[in-house]
């Protein structure tokens, strides 16, 4: 979803080709992949830590989360940095050392326009790490029965604290963005599912699951017919994502095509690397403007598919060897999903897509 969204921007920036996708209200729908991912992330963290409690488990959780997020992000941030240093990419941009340091640490830094790091799509990872830190504190104090109240109270306190921070402060932005609520939607979905799983009729669960998925999908599609303020993003995208994730999880171990499972596992690599493909396409368009004369919608679809296919190759070539090197020897890379946790059940691992 995010991949296609970025190609909509490239098309409008470098060509004058009309596009129903880019010109219509559906142009913002691709960005909802981030919201879906946040809900999935909150769901999986609850589902995979039901027996975790205490200092040792909290530290282990945080170590695994950091290992999952940072190394691969550093690899591709460094790749982009090298391209910038040799004058291949981002030629018109100038970056201060302090900005680059903040980018590597995933600490938001206002650059005069926004709080995005050097590898722009990394902005979502700052929120991921914030959620993981707060979640690890919950594990530390053994919040098994009080996950949602604890997390809600924690993020409410952080939002209140942000009020005393100066304008354009990175932590003020991080603590006050409503999009963080989408992680809580995922937590809610997991707790509801864990409670229903033990005492619900299987047939009725499946009917309810299908209904939730359909309603959620319609909710996503309806966003193409109106414009809402960005601070309402957690409502217009987060609520449909909540319904779809809950429904998909309730379906249980429904079979998915192997290629779809693969794309789910490769989603983090695709997310981090797809911008290299879209930047390359933008450079080609600037050098050979005639290539921008193809139909706009066809361009977005074909470029998006090619990018997903190409970026997914970085998963076996880069991500899996890296995770194999950083993971316990008892787990093979094939046993580690896109969130860096041991695969437990199909309903978790098959729902992973940020693309």
Automatic annotation (TrEMBL):
GO terms for molecular function: acyltransferase activity, transferring groups other than amino-acyl groups. The keyword Signal does not apply. InterPro entries: Acyl_transf_3_dom, Acyltransferase_3. Residues 1-313 form the Acyltransferase domain. Keywords: Membrane, Transmembrane, Transmembrane helix. The keyword Transmembrane helix applies. It comes from the Bacteria. The chain crosses the membrane at residues 29-48, 69-90, 123-141, 148-166, 178-196, 208-228, 234-252, 259-278, 298-318. It holds the Pfam family Acyl_transf_3. GO terms for cellular component: membrane. One of its GO terms (biological process) is polysaccharide biosynthetic process. This is Exopolysaccharide production protein ExoZ. It comes from Acidisarcina polymorpha.
């Amino acid at each position: 979803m995010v991949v296609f969204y970025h190609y909509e921007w490239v098309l409008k920036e470098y060509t004058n080709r009309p596009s129903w996708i880019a010109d219509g209200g559906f142009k913002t729908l691709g960005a909802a992949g981030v919201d879906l991912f946040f809900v999935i992330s909150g769901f999986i963290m609850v589902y995979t830590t039901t027996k975790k409690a205490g200092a040792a488990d909290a530290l282990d959780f945080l170590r695994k989360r950091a290992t999952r997020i940072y190394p691969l992000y550093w690899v591709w941030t460094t790749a982009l940095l090298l391209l910038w240093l040799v004058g291949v990419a981002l030629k018109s941009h100038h970056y201060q050392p302090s900005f680059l340091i903040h980018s590597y640490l995933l600490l938001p830094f206002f650059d005069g326009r926004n709080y995005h790091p050097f590898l722009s799509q990394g902005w979502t990872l700052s929120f991921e790490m914030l959620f993981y830190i707060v979640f690890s504190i919950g594990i530390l104090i053994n919040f098994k029965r009080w996950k949602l109240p604890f997390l809600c109270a924690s993020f409410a306190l952080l939002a209140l604290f942000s009020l005393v921070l100066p304008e354009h402060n990175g932590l003020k932005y991080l603590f006050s963005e409503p999009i963080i609520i989408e992680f809580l939607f995922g937590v809610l979905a997991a707790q509801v599912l864990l409670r229903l799983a033990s005492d619900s009729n299987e047939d009725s669960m499946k009917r309810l699951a299908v209904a939730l998925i359909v309603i959620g999908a319609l909710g996503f599609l309806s966003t193409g017919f109106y414009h809402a303020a960005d601070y309402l993003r957690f409502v217009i995208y987060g609520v449909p994502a909540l319904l779809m994730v809950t429904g998909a999880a309730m379906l249980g171990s429904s079979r998915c095509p192997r290629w779809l499972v693969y794309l789910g596992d490769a989603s983090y690599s695709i997310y981090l690397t797809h911008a290299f493909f879209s930047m390359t396409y933008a450079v080609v368009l600037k050098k050979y403007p005639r290539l921008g004369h193809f139909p706009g919608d066809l361009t977005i679809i074909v470029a998006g598919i090619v990018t997903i296919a190409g970026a997914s190759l970085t998963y076996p070539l880069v991500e899996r060897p890296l995770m194999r090197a950083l993971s316990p020897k008892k787990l093979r890379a094939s046993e580690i999903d896109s969130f860096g946790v041991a695969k437990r059940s199909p309903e978790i691992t098959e729902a992973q897509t940020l693309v």
